[in-house]
Please model this.
Amino acid sequence: MKKHSYTLLAALVLSACGGGGDSEKETDAPSDTTPSKTYVSGNTMQSGSDGYIEYPTEDVGQGYYCNGSSDKYFESEFVRVYANSAVGNNNLMAVATLVQNNMSFSYGKMNFTTASLKEFMPQYAPTIANRFLQTSEYNDELAYNYVYTGIHKDVDWKSMTASDVIYGIPDHYQSLDTQGAIDTALILTEKFSELSGAEVEKRSDKVIVCLAGHMNKSRFAEGTFHGLNFAEPEADSRVLESVYTKHELIHHVQMQHYRVTDGSVVGIYNLPSWLVEGQAVYLSGQSIAKRSEVSNTSIDDMNNASDKNAYYEEYGLAYSYLHLNNDVSTINKLYSNTASGITSFESAFDALNLKNHYGQVMTYSSFKSNYQTWVADWK
Model:
């Protein structure tokens, strides 16, 4: 099998989980952080090696993830890249370099440092907690007696109905501080492990990257709860730019706000694309539509589009309006406050008192109704 090295300076168009072109129309983001010619230091491990660490199996993307053929990895200080043994080691090192060199930029755009994001991240994959909730839905007395009395001393968990549990725990989980969320996740996962006999994986401190042979031109990159997935060089001959790694790292950060979910962490894609993709497009420095072009596309056009891939530049413009008139940490609550479907997106938007460019509080309804007029008038 022919092996390719990742060239890090060529343009491409990201499909399904990205967007934009090879030039910037309108953005305040700095230019790309190009990896140095020297790869980051690290070690390559084969699956037969002593101490080989398996790749995650929960919340690893929309079907494009590490699989049984991922039998080696390269590990740097902050990144672990898995691949098939046929993929050259230089490819793994190049990808690790690309990701590691763009982490600080991407996290900073979301108001995190590498250290603060590590503290904010749940220690366990959200699907684990969700599975526990599914277990509790069947009125397992052992689960009730063990868990709900220990999560929060001020809540009488035993008296809750099954419905209260399903909707109450995620709501409570979102309200916890970082350590409280970690402690709760630990209780949930330990009890789930006891009840099901399943091994519960604690997440890695590293950004996990999978080079997946079954990813292709229609979808060659995605952000995941654990990190990123890229197509193997053999699966797609195109090459990667820093800007697209930033885009997927921003999706990775978005997913950390989801904690407990109704199925899997990729539930963020149930939120409006102008928010999820627009934030990744804008903050990574990809092209966005000009304000003078706003009359061509409404928020409803973007929300109802049959081909959402055609609107990435418009998504970026819509998000930029929110971003430049509000604090990004407040905007990020649109993810955490809608996790598990406890609160609708519209209700979450309205509750945050987000401002328009006049400094006035706007509702989601008023944002949609006035979007084109406001952006056209926005100086």
